[in-house]
């Protein structure tokens, strides 16, 4: 690890000023940053430790019915907050399906939003990677890429965003509160992560010094609590990144879908909101046919970036399944294996 | 640049000057405090061998910078037993053969203790498997680990029941 | 003093007070308290940290290293490169015996695989050494990497595994196939796999003049001593290795690899103690792996479903500079009766670290292909796969025609099937579902592993206070040597286990041979048993020749050793304690040595194998393709079980490895660079706790008078064989999709 200077600012303003310097980066729990630094992927000159900043670790209900989650709230604390899990069950399920209990205890909400891709060529500093080193090329494009993006990728980058948490958040129109050199501003989470186009080195819309201070769920997000699921296909039963995942949230009234929210994970450089599919669902009766239609719609723009055509079909199926599960209703208790297709395997076997 | 930090490690306060901000909690424990019970299996948060409790919560000490944890209260495997009296989780690991080579064992035990404190798993073996999945065991002692945790959980519940009765 | 033959005329009788007992691990308390000392836990005074820089190319040479940049980094003490390193006494490329591998210890600037060590940075802190290694920023002259099973011209290796012929046959395979009623032909692929013991390879080396003290995990203390002695030109008795606990080995700590040698060189260079620990990603290269294979199986059956021919060909790889060939096709030698069997191997050379034995080398890779093919053949015949296996049950070893020394496989099938409930299985695939709509499949695999013996020696003593000592340089890599061998020692000495000082794990003790081939308990156990018998015989001699002893004159009748006393065999009312015998003789102790070794006559006469039957249940999401193993039952017959508690754990572990082989493990190599793209534990998947279902192990009683004096066959590896195939066959039965490339991936099941 490259030597670095370390500062522990007392206020957000001090933090922003420190982190705006070239070579500076924020340190929260460090569960992703330290991994990147140990691999030589990230070599900052200055770590601005924000973990001691006051007031960023609260979960606050807002007067308008929304919820504000401080950027330093730990993933596990959020997932296990009873009110939160009851109101936003798909988000809690996504959180609990990510990483391991140890990592969830450490990792922060803000850090989770800003975690970097797991693309092996990004991690391998001997490979060419436009995200790691602008303009160097992309060795993933013709490399081992069965897990890479099928939506929103470009010739310069086919990496995916690995977060589970962000997928239902994007579906629920989460808003990110940012403190920057020019003061506070907010953007939709859907606008935080960038598709690669020609500048994959920029993961997000953040400017130097920008500090995510909170994530906000708008009042409407609560309205999906009865019909919200996160489903994640992975290559181990636990402790594995998604091959593909989906968050589905429905409001069902009088046998019709009043509102639908749908987002996909593991398919693009950002959590992928499927608005077209939501339009298909809105107003329809929640049945298998419309879920299939929505699944088709969600992937209409998908194309393989390598040996990953299967992910398109898998994504369609996971969308249909997530919608089916959501329509069936949020389970009363968190499944023993959150977000797993094996959430309920205690059943008897028959021929 | 030197940084003075203080930690409480297994109940004892330790003040020292950190001459290098790159030192992780894991390397601090192992190479500077010579508490080598905590193991390094991957150094990247992917195996759980380095699991310790910080503020009562289990984390991967390999991904935690020591300097950022100034003031933290740390429990490692060395602080779990009371002299010759093993913690119930330790005793259960022996009884159920929850290990073979033993290298992942300190991390497994710290993780199990952390999990029990989290109160999320209860007596559901499936939940225990899920909640212990951050600790890899290459020897494949998982069956014994789950049985050990179940026994320790049952003992803890029994103790709580008696206390409240 | 009479010569002893352990099987015909024991001077004492073993009574099983220790052997066979389910004792918990005697090292358990140390391990659960974090007090078991693994190599990297040592920290001698003045110790420096060494970190390797490794190559990012797979083939070519290093043209420059920025040594100055590394040396400028605060804390860096020295940088070891091909230009600056201690001289070795012999060329590390010379193979002085078959158990020596060619290693890279900075003898040149050549790069022959990715992650090869190219320099070592030594510093006062781990942080400084680590960054120093990064600052070397090597430049290379790069040649194109040769990757994969078709990387070049194939050849037939001289031997496969450890000294097995590359080709074998019995009968006429082509005629057998031609005459067959039904035939199948199928090709299976298995990927490169890495041992990934939880403990990374590590060494702490301390030179004192020309004496060398080493802390290092090793499965072969004496092999390591011999290799270090020849490399550094010092006498073996100047070297002391401590290896009390290995954090897993699985074969990768069997032979001296390059990195620990570099640690010793670094200590010599700087004149201080040095610790060198591999980073996880550095374990994907210089410390061995399981080579990939492509296996073609052809089989034919007659109208009754009996095999008429079995042809098993395996393609594998070795490195460009050394030879180890995964003996995959040899799995077809022992399991199924067929009038015609042919096995053959060929190989190509690729730019990789040299492959090595990894838990069940050949047996694991070959077994998953053979068991899959047997299932395909059974399906082609329309016969239940268990019934098919029974129909083709081998009463003698098929490839040699020799009788088995013992074989309780039929009982394994019966007991395993009963426990699993196999009879309720549908013959057709994709017929079974659970309440949640998940596809359910049941599969079977037959397990087999040879009962091997190596060479070992042990030293036993009986002391004046009536206690005993047993010393052997045995290795505990998790299998439980500290416990199981102590149990054998206690019985061998006629003492309670707590009255025996059992010493193991250092190189100054008698040679226990290599801990591998599932043969350590048998080999070291035989030496211990023999040493115990020898020391009891000495003690008996003292008593029976002394007219003051109640045992005087009992020499012909013989004596029994039990609970620290000798008794007359024909009159147990006459006896005296060990302490009394030694006190009267005025001796502080008596000692004796014993050896364990294979019995060539028995090996000539018999085929010796452990067997088992594994039954697996998987569930598969019908649309999403995700797989989960939900149940496994393994029934194994492996001779005498020294400690059922530990044996169960070993078999569980093997079964999990089998599941991992079928569903998880794979090193992914970039076809262009030859670099492994998942050289970590996040993306190289080994099973996590949630992957492992409730497991059930049955040990089937088996007495084998031929394998060794104790009748032990070994259980370290057999659990993988059978299990991998059982899981793969269960996936087929669940889905109707026969996947022939492992690990089975989601996309294969998106039908």
Automatic annotation (TrEMBL), chain A:
The Swiss-Prot or TrEMBL record annotates one GO molecular function as: FAD binding
**Is Flavoprotein one of the keywords?**
yes
Work out whether the entry's keyword set contains Flavoprotein.
yes
**UniProt xrefs under SMART domains:** CO_deh_flav_C
| Taxonomy, superkingdom | Bacteria
Keywords for the protein's UniProt record, in alphabetical order: FAD, Flavoprotein
For this protein, the record's InterPro entries field holds: CO_DH_flav_C, CO_DH_flav_C_dom_sf, Diverse_Substr_Oxidored, FAD-bd_PCMH, FAD-bd_PCMH-like_sf, FAD-bd_PCMH_sub1, FAD-bd_PCMH_sub2, Mopterin_DH_FAD-bd
Report the residue ranges that make up the FAD-binding PCMH-type domain in this protein. 1-222
Q: What is this protein called?
A: Molybdopterin dehydrogenase
Task: Cite the source lineage.
Answer: Bacteria, Pseudomonadati, Pseudomonadota, Alphaproteobacteria, Hyphomicrobiales
UniProtKB/TrEMBL annotation, chain B:
Q: Indicate the segments annotated as coiled coil, or none if absent.
A: none
- Supply the alphabetized keyword list: 2Fe-2S, Iron, Iron-sulfur, Metal-binding, Oxidoreductase
Q: Does the keyword Cell membrane apply?
A: no
Cited InterPro entries: 2Fe-2S-bd, 2Fe-2S-bd_dom_sf, 2Fe-2S_ferredoxin-like_sf, 2Fe-2S_ferredoxin-type, 2Fe2S_fd_BS, Aldehyde_Oxdr_Iron-Sulfur, Beta-grasp_dom_sf
Query: Which Gene Ontology molecular-function terms are recorded?
Result: 2 iron, 2 sulfur cluster binding; metal ion binding; oxidoreductase activity, acting on the aldehyde or oxo group of donors
What superkingdom heads the lineage? Bacteria
Check the record and name the Pfam families matching this protein. Fer2 (PF00111), Fer2_2 (PF01799)
List each copy of the 2Fe-2S ferredoxin-type domain by range.
Answer: 3-80
Q: What is this protein called?
A: (2Fe-2S)-binding protein
Automatic annotation (TrEMBL), chain C:
Query: Transmembrane ranges?
Result: none
- Cite the Aldehyde oxidase/xanthine dehydrogenase a/b hammerhead domain residue spans from the record: 33-144
Q: Which domain of life is it from?
A: Bacteria
> What would you give as a GO molecular function for this chain, any one?
iron ion binding
Q: Quote the InterPro entries the UniProt record gives.
A: Ald_Oxase/Xan_DH_a/b, Ald_Oxase/Xan_DH_a/b_sf, Ald_Oxase/xanthine_DH-like, AldOxase/xan_DH_MoCoBD1, AldOxase/xan_DH_MoCoBD2, AldOxase/xan_DH_Mopterin-bd_sf
Give the protein name, as stated in the record. Dehydrogenase
Source organism of this protein record = Bradyrhizobium centrolobii
Q: Give the lineage.
A: Bacteria, Pseudomonadati, Pseudomonadota, Alphaproteobacteria, Hyphomicrobiales
């Amino acid at each position: 690890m490259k030597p670095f200077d370390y500062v522990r600012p007392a206020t957000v303003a001090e933090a922003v000023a420190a982190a705006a310097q070239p070579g500076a980066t924020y340190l929260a729990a460090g569960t992703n940053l330290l991994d990147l630094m140990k691999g030589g992927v990230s070599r900052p000159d200055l770590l601005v430790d924000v973990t001691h900043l006051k007031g960023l670790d609260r979960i606050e209900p807002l007067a308008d019915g929304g919820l504000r989650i401080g950027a330093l709230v730990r993933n596990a604390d959020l997932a296990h907050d009873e009110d939160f899990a009851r109101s936003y069950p798909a988000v809690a399920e996504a959180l609990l399906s990510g990483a391991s209990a140890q990592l969830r205890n450490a990792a922060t909400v803000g850090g989770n939003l800003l975690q970097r891709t797991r693309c092996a060529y990004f991690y391998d500093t001997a490979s060419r990677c436009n995200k790691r080193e602008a303009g160097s090329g992309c060795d993933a494009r013709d490399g081992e890429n069965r897990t890479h993006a099928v939506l929103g990728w470009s010739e310069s980058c086919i990496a995916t965003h690995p977060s589970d948490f962000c997928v239902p958040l994007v579906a629920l129109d989460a808003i990110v509160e940012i403190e920057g050199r020019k003061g506070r501003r907010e953007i939709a989470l859907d606008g935080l992560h960038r598709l690669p186009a020609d500048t994959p080195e920029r993961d997000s819309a953040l400017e130097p010094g920008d500090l995510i201070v909170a994530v906000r769920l708008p009042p409407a997000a609560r309205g999906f609590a009865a019909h919200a699921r996160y489903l994640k296909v992975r290559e181990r039963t636990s402790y594995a990144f998604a091959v593909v995942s989906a968050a589905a949230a429905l409001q069902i009234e009088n046998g019709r879908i009043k509102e639908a929210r749908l987002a996909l994970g593991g398919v693009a450089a950002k959590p992928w909101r499927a608005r077209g599919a939501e339009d298909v669902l809105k107003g329809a009766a929640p049945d298998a046919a419309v879920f299939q239609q929505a699944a088709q719609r969600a992937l209409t723009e998908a194309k393989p970036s390598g040996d990953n055509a299967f992910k398109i079909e898998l994504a369609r199926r996971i969308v249909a399944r997530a919608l089916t599960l959501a329509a069936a209703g949020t389970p009363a208790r968190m499944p023993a294996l959150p977000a797993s297709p094996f959430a309920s395997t205690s059943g008897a076997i028959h021929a | 640049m030197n940084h003075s930090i203080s930690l409480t490690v297994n109940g004892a306060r330790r003040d020292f000057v950190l001459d290098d901000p790159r030192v992780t909690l894991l390397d601090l424990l192992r190479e500077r405090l010579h508490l080598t019970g905590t193991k390094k299996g991957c150094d990247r948060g992917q195996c759980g061998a380095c699991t310790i409790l910080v503020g009562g919560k289990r984390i991967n000490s390999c991904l935690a910078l020591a300097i950022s944890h100034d003031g933290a209260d740390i429990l490692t495997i060395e602080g779990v037993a009371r002299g010759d009296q093993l913690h119930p989780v330790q005793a259960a690991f022996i009884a159920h053969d929850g290990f073979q080579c033993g290298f992942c064992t300190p991390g497994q035990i710290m993780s199990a203790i952390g999990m029990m404190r989290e109160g999320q798993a209860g007596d559901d073996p499936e939940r225990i498997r899920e909640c212990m999945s951050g600790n890899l065991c290459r020897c494949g002692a998982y069956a014994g680990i789950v049985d050990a945790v179940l026994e320790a959980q049952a003992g803890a519940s029994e103790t709580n029941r008696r206390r409240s009765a | 003093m009479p010569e002893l033959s352990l099987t015909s005329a024991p001077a004492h009788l073993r009574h099983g007070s220790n052997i066979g007992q389910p004792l918990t691990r005697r090292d358990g308390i140390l391990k659960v308290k974090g007090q078991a000392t693994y190599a990297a836990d040592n920290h001698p005074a003045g110790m420096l940290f060494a970190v390797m820089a490794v190559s990012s190319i797979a083939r070519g040479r290093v043209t420059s290293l920025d040594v100055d940049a590394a040396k400028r980094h605060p804390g860096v003490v020295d940088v070891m490169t091909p230009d600056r390193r201690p001289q070795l006494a012999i060329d590390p490329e010379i193979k002085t015996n078959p158990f020596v591998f060619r290693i890279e210890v900075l003898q040149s600037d050549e790069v022959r695989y990715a992650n090869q060590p190219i320099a070592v940075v030594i510093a006062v802190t781990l942080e400084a050494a680590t960054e120093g290694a990064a600052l070397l920023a090597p430049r290379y002259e790069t040649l194109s990497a040769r990757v994969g099973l078709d990387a070049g011209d194939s050849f037939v290796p001289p031997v496969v595994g450890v000294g097995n012929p590359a080709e074998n046959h019995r009968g006429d395979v082509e005629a057998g196939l031609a005459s067959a009623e039904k035939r199948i032909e199928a090709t299976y692929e298995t990927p490169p796999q890495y041992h990934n013991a939880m403990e990374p390879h590590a060494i702490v080396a301390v030179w004192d003049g020309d004496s060398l003290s080493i802390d290092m995990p090793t499965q072969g203390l004496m092999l390591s001593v011999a290799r270090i002695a020849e490399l550094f030109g010092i006498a073996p008795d100047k070297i002391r290795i401590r290896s009390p606990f290995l954090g897993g080995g699985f074969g990768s700590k069997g032979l001296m690899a390059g990195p620990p040698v570099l640690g010793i060189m670094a200590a010599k260079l700087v004149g201080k103690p040095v610790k060198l620990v591999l980073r996880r990603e550095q374990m994907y290269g210089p410390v061995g792996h399981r080579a990939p294979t492509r296996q073609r199986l052809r089989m034919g059956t007659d109208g009754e479903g009996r095999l008429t021919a079995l042809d098993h060909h395996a393609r594998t790889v070795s490195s460009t500079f050394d030879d180890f060939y995964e003996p995959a096709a040899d799995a077809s030698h022992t399991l199924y009766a067929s009038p015609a069997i042919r096995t053959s191997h060929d190989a190509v050379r690729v730019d990789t670290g040299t492959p090595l034995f990894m838990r069940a080398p050949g047996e694991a890779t070959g077994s998953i292909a053979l068991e899959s093919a047997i299932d395909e053949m059974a399906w082609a015949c329309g016969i239940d796969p268990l019934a098919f296996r029974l129909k083709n049950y081998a009463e003698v070893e098929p490839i040699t025609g020799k009788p088995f020394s013992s074989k309780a496989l039929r009982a394994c099938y019966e007991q395993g099937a009963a426990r699993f409930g196999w009879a309720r299985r549908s013959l057709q695939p994709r017929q079974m579902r659970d309440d949640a709509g998940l596809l359910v499949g049941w599969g079977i695999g037959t397990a087999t592993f040879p009962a091997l013996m190596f060479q070992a020696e042990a030293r036993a003593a009986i002391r004046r206070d009536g206690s005993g000592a047993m010393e052997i340089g045995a290795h505990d890599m998790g299998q439980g040597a500290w416990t199981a061998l102590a149990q054998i020692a206690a019985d061998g000495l006629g003492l309670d286990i707590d009255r025996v000082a059992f010493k193991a794990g250092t190189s100054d003790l008698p040679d226990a041979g290599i801990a591998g081939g599932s043969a350590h308990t048998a080999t070291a156990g035989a030496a211990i048993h023999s040493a115990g018998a020898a020391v009891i015989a000495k003690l008996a001699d003292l008593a029976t020749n002394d007219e003051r002893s109640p045992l005087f004159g009992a020499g012909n009748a013989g004596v029994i050793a039990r609970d620290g006393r000798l008794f007359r065999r024909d009159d147990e009312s006459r006896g005296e304690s060990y302490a009394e015998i030694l006190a009267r003789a005025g001796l502080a102790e008596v000692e004796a040595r014993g050896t364990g070794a294979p019995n060539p006559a028995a090996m000539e006469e018999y085929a010796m194998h452990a067997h088992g039957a594994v039954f697996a249940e998987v569930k598969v999401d019908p649309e999403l393709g995700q797989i989960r193993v939900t149940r496994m039952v393994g029934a194994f017959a492996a001779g005498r079980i020294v400690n059922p508690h530990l044996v169960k754990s070993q078999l569980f572990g093997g079964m999990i490895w089998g599941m991992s082989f079928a569903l998880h493990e794979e090193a992914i190599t970039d076809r262009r660079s030859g670099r492994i793209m998942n050289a970590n534990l996040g993306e190289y998947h080994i099973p996590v706790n949630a992957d492992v279902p409730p497991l059930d192990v049955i040990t089937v009683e088996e007495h084998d008078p031929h394998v060794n004096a104790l009748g032990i066959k070994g259980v370290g590896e057999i659990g993988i064989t059978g299990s991998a195939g059982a899981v793969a066959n269960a996936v087929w039965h669940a889905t109707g999709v026969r996947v022939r490339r492992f690990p089975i991936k989601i996309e294969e099941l998106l039908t």
